[in-house]
Hints:
three-stranded antiparallel beta sheet; globular; Rossmann fold
Amino acid sequence: MSELKYTPKDYKSDQYVRWCPGCGDHSLLNSLHKAMAELQLLPHQTAVISGIGCSSRLPYYMNTYGFHTIHGRGAAVATGVKVANPQLSVWQISGDGDGLAIGGNHFIHALRRNVDLNIILLNNRIYGLTKGQYSPTSPRGIVTKSSPYGTVEDPFRPAELVFGARGHFFARCVDVDGAASVEVLTAAARHQGASVVEVLQNCVIFNDGSQSIVATKADRAKHAIYLRQGQPMIFGESNELGLMQEGFGLKVVKIGENGITEKDLLVHDAHTEDYTLHLKLAMMEGDFPIALGVIRDVAAPTYETGVHDQIAQVKAKKPARTLEELLMAGDKWEIK
């Protein structure tokens, strides 16, 4: 008998996908189906949890268990699912509004606890479902339905939150960059602990062009760097540029100029415990390339394992009791 092998279509539900034509969510959904097929996840051992927002419709389009919860509470519910059944592969789908505004507290504590969740953060820098208000990741000065004269506040940068919450896995991809998206999604699933994949996503209706700097393959060649474990940090249209350390910071150099060779460039190590360089890479902007790929991937004890180990230890020290024995185990008073 041949071994059953799942394909991407095995993870697709029969529901009509209700997103705007051209929305980056379509591409991410396709990449997620492919990633699950590559991982050969058992659909009946997989759960997809979401909050509220455009991206939070995603569980309906998965042939797995799913839970469309309430606004900002996806991480809390996903934590409960994972602790109740650690054998499940649990994916949390969230947008920048759902995950970082009302859900911000749940987000950082899921990371701090290191619950084994695969958190996909679709960042289009706008509230889409509620029709175009600015979100926690919208840039200062953006004009939206809720900021007609431009915002007067600075945005969250998801990587900064992840590292500040002592996160052990952070990766980034672009919605339409299918192969690279599958690569980071599979890496996130293989990581034991809380993993965050920030998806730079376009909203064609309310914030079109927000990710234009990396929207096409040509754009990414000019403005992005794909970080790969154990490989020198090279980028550019012809791989002519690289990253070197300069003091406590980074600098962009041109290979071949001033005697600089590939051996002089920084080599990516996502597994090092010290996150100083990981944070610098994740925060690059302006004259620096945008970092894509797995930026940090460090092993650490997981929350649900700790909980179940603790329960086992306590049970081993105490004999099993009936409910009546437990109720009568404390101080007793007899009333006559």
